[in-house]
Structure formats: structure tokens, C-alpha cells
Design goal:
heterodimer; A: 249 residues; mainly alpha; Ferritin; B: 94 residues; alpha+beta; Ubiquitin-like (UB roll); three-stranded antiparallel beta sheet; 3 strands; flat
């Protein structure tokens, strides 16, 4: 596959799956205000997905639409980072997943604002404003709840312990990204991992949360290897379009 | 101590030159989160460029039962409205 298509799918699949997971909180968040905030964020992410899929579909040149890419690919064809497919479990997990994602998403979108590819550059310049708000919000809640009551601290630490090993998958770089950096389509991406480390070190310390000692571990999402939850997410997300392929609003 | 978050009144300014208008209320543990929540609850459709939040119990209001003694008197004083001037045609719409 054209490295540009692969990269756009890696980005778009990651925002799509997180958007889908975030949307599942609609009507279930602990308070009304948080419910609306989560739904807003999910919609931002799905909007960004559409832009990534448009670039991918155009580069691919096979006449597929963003909907085709979202609803008519199978699990091994999805290239999202594993972090975003981890289950909602409880609000602590959903918040921590969002924060770790945001801590990667902001620096990569900032880097992509200097992409040599015009459509990617424009996408990033639009998205980065949304992402700045997302991390502002998730960082604030991580600190409040981590450094909150005994119960909230324990829940946030539990979520961090469960999710931290999946953070590495966000920053995994292989020949695809290297090829795009080589032709100037992407800026060097090593600074994204540095920014992630700096952001999480400061914020998790403020939140009185301890970063698990076993280091970054789980990768593979960006080459189509997924965890046991992924099939369920796709089944729910794709069921209607696959049952009624020509259905229109 | 109540576990319910306090109530906040939300004021939004739609554009430069207009004043902030009361748009509704919401719950939040403190002012900073009330601002964030207001952004998510009340500006989803591009309504505003500035938000004020005020804790509801900081607002002092007349007792609605006293409406008659507070507000009835001006009803009969129509001459307080500037509606008795002849406006020359050249002025146009005012």
C-alpha cells in the first residue's frame, strides 16, 4: 500500500475508534455536563476521521468513500493504535485513555501543521485547535481526580496501570512514516514521543499518579494487530451499514 | 456536606459590541470547571465569543411575591416612554 494511504488510515482509524468509544458514553456519563463534553469530543474526532479518509481515498484512487473505509473493512485492515480500542470499563478508564491519546495527538497535530502535503497540513491546522481544547480538558480532570479523594485516586491509578502499556503503540514509527519523512511529506516525528514523555511526566506527577515501572510494551495496532475488544467495537459500529449497505439518511 | 455540585448561571456574549446575556445554568464543582462545562453545553453551535459564570447563590434578587409593590407603579406612567415626539421623515427609521 502507498505509505501515504497507510499513514492516513493509521491516523483516521485511531480517531474513528476513539470517537466511537467516546460516543458510547452519550447518556451514560456521571453528570450531564460531562456527557455533553464527551459527545462533543467524539464528534470532533469523527469529523477529523472524515478528513483523513478523504485524503486516503484520494491517494488510493479506487473510488472508495470515507464511509466505505469506516464500515466495509475488517479488523486486520484497521490500523488504529491499540490504546483507543481498550474498553470503556468506567469513567476513570475513559478519561485516562482520552488523556494519553491527547498527550500524543496534540504534538503530532502540531508537527503535521508543517507537513509538506497540503491536505494534511490543512487538516492539522484545523484539527489542532480542537485538540488543544481536548487536552486542556482531559489534563484538568486527570489532575483533579488523581489528586482528589482516596477513591478517585485509586480509580485513576488503576486506569493508568491498565492503559500505560498501550501508549507505546501511539508512537510506534516504522518504514511507512520514515518513507514519508524521507520525501518531506511528514516532518520528523521523534519529537512527538519527546513531547508525550514531557507532558505525561509533569501532569501525572501533579495528579500524584505513579507511572508504571514496566515501561512501554504493547504495539501492533498500526499494522493491523488488535486486542480482543476490537471485534466487538467493529461489530457494533458496522452492523447497520453492513445489513443495509445502500441505506441513506 | 451536599454531594451535589453547586449551580452556576451562565452568561454568553454572542459578538463584539453586544452585552453578555443569560443563557441558562449548569452544575460544576468550581468556577474553572463551570467555564469548561459552559463551553461544552452552551457554545456548541457557535453561539459565543465570551463566557461569564456566576455562582447562582451569589445573585441577590427581589422576591417574586413583591412584584406588585416593586413594579406596578410605572405601568400608569406612559409619559416616561419617549413615544410622544413627532419624528421628522428625514430621520428615517429609529
Amino acid at each position: 500500500m502507498d505509505p501515504l494511504v497507510t499513514f492516513c488510515l493509521r491516523m483516521g482509524d485511531t480517531t474513528l475508534i476513539l470517537g466511537q468509544q467516546t460516543a458510547a458514553w452519550c447518556g451514560h456519563a456521571p453528570v450531564l455536563e460531562e456527557d455533553i463534553a464527551f459527545a462533543n469530543m467524539g464528534l470532533d474526532l469523527i469529523g477529523q476521521t472524515q478528513l483523513w479518509y478523504e485524503i486516503a481515498a484520494q491517494a488510493e484512487g479506487q473510488g472508495r468513500t470515507p464511509d466505505d473505509l469506516a464500515f466495509f473493512r475488517t479488523e486486520r485492515q484497521f490500523l488504529n493504535a491499540q490504546l483507543v480500542e481498550r474498553p470503556n470499563v468506567d469513567f476513570a478508564h475513559a478519561l485516562m485513555r482520552q488523556y494519553l491519546f491527547d498527550a500524543w495527538h496534540l504534538p503530532i497535530q502540531e508537527a503535521l501543521c508543517e507537513s509538506g502535503h497540503q491536505a494534511i497540513r490543512e487538516l492539522a491546522q484545523k484539527s489542532v485547535k480542537e485538540v488543544r481544547y481536548h487536552i486542556d480538558r482531559s489534563r484538568d480532570l486527570i489532575v483533579r481526580l488523581g489528586d482528589g479523594s482516596e477513591e478517585s485516586h485509586a480509580m485513576m491509578q488503576g486506569a493508568l496501570d491498565a492503559l500505560w502499556p498501550y501508549a507505546a503503540d501511539l508512537m510506534a514509527i516504522d518504514a511507512v512514516e520514515q518513507a514519508l519523512v524521507g520525501i518531506g511529506m511528514l516532518p520528523p516525528l521523534d519529537r512527538v514521543a519527546c513531547a508525550f514523555e514531557a507532558e505525561t511526566a509533569v501532569t501525572l506527577d501533579r495528579a500524584t499518579l505513579a507511572i508504571p515501572g514496566n515501561g512501554h510494551a504493547r504495539t501492533g495496532g498500526r499494522t493491523g494487530i488488535h486486542t480482543e475488544t476490537m471485534g466487538y467495537i467493529l461489530a457494533e459500529m458496522q452492523q447497520i451499514p453492513r445489513s443495509f449497505p445502500d441505506a441513506r439518511w | 456536606m451536599s454531594k451535589e455540585w453547586p449551580l452556576w448561571e451562565i452568561f454568553i456574549r454572542g459578538q463584539h459590541g453586544l452585552s453578555h446575556r443569560h443563557v441558562g445554568s449548569l452544575h460544576a464543582p468550581d468556577a474553572e470547571m463551570a467555564l469548561r462545562n459552559a463551553r461544552d453545553v452552551y457554545t456548541r453551535r457557535n453561539e459565543g465569543m465570551s463566557i461569564w459564570v456566576v455562582e447562582s447563590n451569589k445573585i441577590t434578587a427581589f422576591d417574586p411575591d413583591m412584584a406588585e409593590q416593586n413594579f406596578a407603579a410605572p405601568k400608569s406612567k406612559v409619559y416616561r416612554h419617549p413615544s410622544f415626539f413627532e419624528i421628522p421623515d428625514e430621520v428615517g427609521a429609529m
